[in-house]
Every structure is written in C-alpha cells, then in structure tokens.
Amino acid sequence: MQTVILAAGQGTRMRPLTETTPKPMLPVADRPLVAHVADAAVEAGASELLVVVGYEAAAVRGYFGDSYRGVPVTSVRQERQRGTADAVRAARPHLDGPFAVLNGDNLYDPATVTRLYERGPALVGSPVADPRNYGVVSATDGRVTGIVEKPSDPPSSLANAGGYVFPAIASEWLDVPESTRGEQEITDVVARVVDGFDVTLVTAERWLDVGRPWELLAANEWKLSELEQRVDGLVANSATLEGPVVVESDAHVEPGVVIEGPALVRAGAHVGPNAYVRGRTLLCENVEVGHGVEIKNSVIMSGTSVPHLSYVGDSVLGREVNLGAGTIVANLRHDDQPVRMTVKGERVSTGRRKFGVVVGDGAKTGIDTSLNAGVVLGTGTHTDPGECIRRDRPE
After folding, report:
1. What is d(CA 160, CA 182) in angstroms, rounded to the nearest whole number?
2. What superfamily does domain 2-211 belong to in CATH?
3. What is the C-alpha separation between 126 and 203, in angstroms, rounded?
4. Per-residue pLDDT tens over the stretch 146-187
5. Active-site residue 308, yes or no?
6. pTM
7. CATH homologous superfamily for 224-389?
C-alpha cells in the first residue's frame, strides 16, 4: 500500500517550538513525531512512503532519506500550504493504485492503522468530547455516510482522525475548490468517495492529534509509558532507577540521582548529582540537569541546560535553553481550574489541572526566576535575575 504522510505544515499552534523545527520533527520519546506515524504505516504493510514536505523540508527529508526500515521513501514538496487535498495532490504523480493517507502530526496505535489498510476504502474516526474543532464523521452500521469539516452543530461525536485508504480513482479527484476556510480540504475527496464506494469506519483504539504544546506533552506521556528498562550509559552506584527507565549510551547519571520511570535519558545527557527526575520525562540528547534539580513530567529538548536547584514541572523546553540557578516553574492554579495558555492570540484551556510553561529555543532565565503556570517564553528571550514572569514574553 503506497502511503502518503502529510508533513508539510508550519505548526503555528505549536509555536514557539516550531519557529525553526517543523512540528512533525518534534521529539516524542526516542524519535520524531512523524516517525511514529511512519512506523505504524510500515508495520501495517506500506510498500512505499510518500512524505509530503514544505516548511523546514530539509529536516524531514534528512531524517527519512531514501528508505525507512527497508521501505522506499519519496519526498514530494507542497510549495504552498493550501490544504490537505493540495498536499496529497503533490504526491499524485507517484500514485499508481489504491493509497493510504496519514497525518504526520497525529499518533495512531499501530493496530488501528493495520485495520485501516485491511479494510479500505476506509477512514479512521475517534470519539471526542467536543468534535467542533475537527472534521466530523457520520456512520451507520460501520459504514461512513458523510463527513463535514469543523461544523458548529456536529452530527456526531466522531472526529475524523486523519487516516484514510482511498481507491485508485480518488487521485483524480484531488482538484477541489477552496473551502470557506480558504483551504482545499481532503474531506471533499472523502465525501466523493463515500458517494461512490462503501467506506469502512475504523474506530481508533487510541489516537492523539498533536497540535498544541500540551498535546506534545501528552504524546510523550503515551510513548514513554511503553518503555522497558534499559541501561546502556554510565549510572553511578549510588543513583536509583525505579521502574521503566532508559539510559542511552553516552548518557551519564551522577551519584545521588533518583529517576522514577517511565523516563528516557537520551545519548549525551548528563544528570546530577542529587537530581530528581520523575513522571514520564524525556531528557533529549546532550541535556544537562544539574545538582539538586527536580524535573517532573516534562519534555526537555536537545542541548538544554537546567542547572542547580531549579524545578521544572509539566513543561516543554525547546532546544538550547538555559535556565539560571534557582529557576522555579509553577504548574498549578490555586483555584484548581485547568491551566490556560495563549495560542495564536487566543486564551484557551489546556484541559490540564497541572501544566507548567513552554519555552522556545535559545531562551535564558536569570537566577531565581519564577515562571507562572501557562507562561510562554518565546525563542531567544531572556529574563533578569529575580524576575517573576506572569505573562507571556514574546521572542
């Protein structure tokens, strides 16, 4: 099955983390987000991966190369991000039969993708509490009967999970008009397929649309929970590893450190002494965690340093961040309401009782900085020693 993976978008709702990194290449456990999608496709029997690239295309191309896990890879470029149908159309010259389409910024459990490939023409749907922000699928007796994009009055609670198997003829139906949102929507193609074919509804066993920073945190919580303990790096005798902890080669865990899994310490990372890491935490390549630091349920990206007597909880720190000694992150509102965060100028709920901060690449805090729950520090921002940051600070 030829499989089109959509990985061209800018990921504006994920900023500042996507200022220089395409969203599909953000880290989820030991690989980029899009690699989990490719893995599910390969395990389901993909014969070729057609990866649609656009924003920061070189990073995606460089990761996959010409093959991935023994499956040929062809990169195709979407020149302008004009919608999902336009993205698939970029791959059309390479399509020669029935084909699958998967969103490169979604997580699918592999069993769902396998069932999708077996039952095509088919579509993946997932029940959600509020389907208004998704394409919404209608179905009867396991057959898709309709699909509508982001309706104000949803006909069902089934969200379109961005996974499809199309008949070959659908490649000729990709020239669709712009929607009211100004995009060429793949849902218009799905609607035409539904009119002419029996389209099977494949209900996702587990699915996550990774569009905003707290959803990246949730993606890591999912994939880190699948870890099995492995220690290839150097761990001091007096360090304590509890539960599923992976310490990759060239990582170093100092004396007095306690790591409660699931947690992943990637190659070149250095932890401690006397640090405490817990709660489904990812420490990426060459991260530095200093003396007496506590990190809980967070994603710390490559090259970032959290030295000396700091606390980071339920947060996402970008690449090459440097937190001054004594930096403290708040991750809980006193009224116990979900933490709110600004996304594309709109204040929205994260849906999480505990959520800390999002810090863009290259940001630095002065010593004894306090960061309030839900705060965003933009790319390259600085704080002064002793500052209490209660509002977002743009790049």
Report:
1. 19
2. Spore Coat Polysaccharide Biosynthesis Protein SpsA; Chain A (3.90.550.10)
3. 6
4. 888 777 777 787 888 989 999 999 989 988 776 667 577 888
5. yes
6. 0.93
7. Hexapeptide repeat proteins (2.160.10.10)
